[in-house]
Amino acid sequence: MPSALPDGEPVPADGALPASALAGAADRPLGFYLHVPYCATRCGYCDFNTYTATELRGTGGVLASRDNYADTLVDEVRLARKVLGDDPREVRTVFVGGGTPTLLAAGDLVRMLGAIRDEFGLAPDAEISTEANPESVDPAYLATLREGGFNRISFGMQSARQHVLKILDRTHTPGRPEACVAEARAAGFDHVNLDLIYGTPGESDDDWRASLDAALGAGPDHVSAYALIVEEGTQLARRIRRGEVPMTDDDVHADRYLIAEETLAAAGYDWYEVSNWATSEAGRCLHNELYWRGADWWGAGPGAHSHVGGVRWWNVKHPGAYAGALAAGKSPGAGREILTDEDRRVERVLLELRLREGVPLSLLREAGLAAARRALSEGLLEEGPYEAGSAVLTLRGRLLADAVVRDLVD
């Protein structure tokens, strides 16, 4: 099951933020993340805050139903309007994730977006995204989303090989994600992403190359490729512990990453974050860049996390408890933390180092600057950007990104 929420101080019943969090808010971009916690089945590797119908049965009653979920989430959007007050900001990005957002009716997703438009307004060039399971959409569904204002969509492909999908407990059939890209283009979507996972037990280099080739053949303008992380408490972790499937190691992950970089770069995709490639700057995921650059976003939905002006908070996890709080006119927040200046500095280093533009050396302390010099001498940072005042990872540095960033913040 999903991991526990972090500790934190209580969230006020009305969700009010400290005045310091709203100071200067008009000058900061604002995004919304809308969490849809429902899945038809649970993938074996997943520890996200998601629920199948069986897992919800008898635990939340009508409050946990996906049939009225859109109404509940709209209530939180209206709460956000009250909490953020007369802030004139238009929303720059909206991202609907899950779970499987497309288990809801397309009209529900459009209605949730409409609430943000009504309460806040959308920037003229706002990026409006949703995740989608390939088996839960069809041309009519995609057309409704596009007509309702969505302009970016991300399909969970994971792999083109059936035996790899089986290990992951993915329910879609090979070839369906590629067909979805064509259907999304026909519906008028400006930007389409395919999500891939490498390092699944039993996956070979040839399997991974086949997945990359299939993804590129579909013609998305964005590809995300993530190393499989085996989380404790998942079905996959239990299978590995019982010896039913092998565990891949870091060397395998590194080899697969190099294959991805070589293949994607040859096809005209440039990396802009360690696990993300796009064919143009316009194809980059602006919503994720809000996260990586520490901007403001409101996360609506069970277990969703938010950040505004140095205050981070998170909602109760269970859909029934979430809906119950909003029905009672209370914030669904479970806890929050107020970040210090040092917290925010460290987070900037942790996140911005993963970006193509890198992190300003001016953010590093003396020990971090010494570590940056060592990383440069070891070929982990690019020389040109370093001389210009930024730490930017080389390809080798990307393979060791976690180790490099630990040194920079220590």
Give me the oligomer status: single chain
**So what's the overall shape?**
globular
* Record field, number of beta strands: 14
Percent helix, as a range, is 25-40%
List low-pLDDT spans.
none
Describe, in plain words, how this protein is organized in 3D.
- Helix 4 (106-119) links the parallel strand 2 (91-98) and strand 3 (122-132).
- The protein has helices at residues 19-22, 53-56, 69-84, 106-119, 139-147, 162-168, 176-187, 205-218, 235-241, 250-266, 286-292, 319-327, 341-352, 366-377, 383-387, 395-399, 401-409; strands at 30-36, 91-98, 122-132, 152-158, 191-198, 222-227, 270-273, 276-278, 296-300, 305-308, 311-315, 333-338, 359-360, 390-391.
- Helix 4 packs parallel to helix 5 (139-147) and helix 7 runs parallel beside helix 8 (205-218).
- Strands 7-8-6-5-4-3-2-1-9 form a nine-stranded mixed β-sheet, sandwiched between helices. Strands 10-11-12 form a three-stranded antiparallel β-sheet, with no helix packed on it.
- By secondary structure, it is an alpha/beta fold.
- It contains 17 helices and 14 strands.
